[in-house]
Amino acid sequence: MKHKIPEVFPKKIQLNKLLLILVLFSFTVSCTKDNEDLSDRIDKSVNLRGLGDSASELLSDEEFTSMNLEIVYVRGYAPDSDALEMFKNFLERRTFKPDGINISLRAVESSGEAPFEIEEIVEIEKQERTVYSAGDEIAVFIYYADGSNENDEDNKVILGSAFRNTSMVIYGKTIEDFVAKPGNPSRNTVEAAVLNHEFGHLLGLVDIGTEAQSDHADSENDGHCTTSGCLMRSSIEFGYGISNMLDENGVPMLDDLCIRDLQANGGR
């Protein structure tokens, strides 16, 4: 004789499954809320100040003893490894960061916005930046763009731009096109020169956050140096004349006047 199994067990099982689903849903909502709260607690304002405003913080170890460089690049425009090594060496020579300088790389998809206004780069930073200054570590955002600046001209192109206190952009496509021309310097040399130059602006040079100790600021090009051969000459940023500066000696160095300015503001 066959016995019909009472339905109390299936109903109980279904009830247990329902309770389990409700518990998991509650846990998921809770975790999501916690993550959102954590993101909201990040003080992004410390990285949203004016150009040169963090010069002393980048230079000295009084407030920040380490530096974290978040480099975000569009696929196909990854930074040159030799250029990054020269860039890091430059930072180690000029800043006091006893707990080290870290460089992290991350690839992203193209924004499709090229050629760029600087305001569009600012919007990209809002979307892509994940590292902000906290504790004893100061953070810097560097974006490698897959296009040019909208203000480029036939005989004057912008290779990089520093904006805000810890933000800069390298126009990777412009550098790629520039070094492809016969007779121009190698990519790693040009790229390192532009990285060093733009970071020089973050360090407050010339007289944009780090006070000039002598008269060497270029009155026609704000933030630049008048000393021949100095890294902070405007020709590094704007491309014209850069080939004459990047000779067999490689990447230009800061002149003594710029170095004295940095030393007076807490740097090496």
UniProtKB/TrEMBL annotation:
* Superkingdom of origin: Bacteria
Q: What is the name listed in the Swiss-Prot or TrEMBL entry for this protein?
A: Membrane metalloprotease
Q: What is the lineage of its organism?
A: Bacteria, Pseudomonadati, Bacteroidota, Flavobacteriia, Flavobacteriales
